[in-house]
Amino acid sequence: xxxxPADGSHAVHxxxxxxxxxxxxxxxxxxxxxxxxxxxxxxxxxLRAAGFHHVTGEPLVAxxxxxxxxxxxxxxxxxxxxxxxxxxxxxxxxxxxxxxxxGQWAEVTGMFDRLGGELDARLAPADGFAH
Length: 131
Known about the structure:
Layout: E1 17-21, H1 40-49, E2 53-54, E3 71-73, E4 79-86, E5 89-97, H2 102-119, E6 121-125
Antiparallel strand pairs: 1-5, 1-6, 2-3, 3-4, 4-5
Helix pairs in contact: 1-2
């Protein structure tokens, strides 16, 4: 992932990241056979607890994670996530840090680490998943 500046005063700039099952395939070849689904209910609960909401400000619900392209911001509005889904089937999130502070980014990555342990998923650069 990223390495924040040593002094901790600069914003984090990172690659486009994906949160998905450790065996996931992300991109044009993503299918039900190659991309294990994630629990929308558990993921939605973790995202809400971390302060994520629709870009319009509305709270998110598990059903939102089954609609491809749905976008959410964290409470500081410096991390954007977008749903990766096939019809009625949630398999991951694009995660795009938009200059969060190192502290804000640590809070978000910590949430994804805990959630990943529960769902057998990981946050990694998009090219780290088979395409």
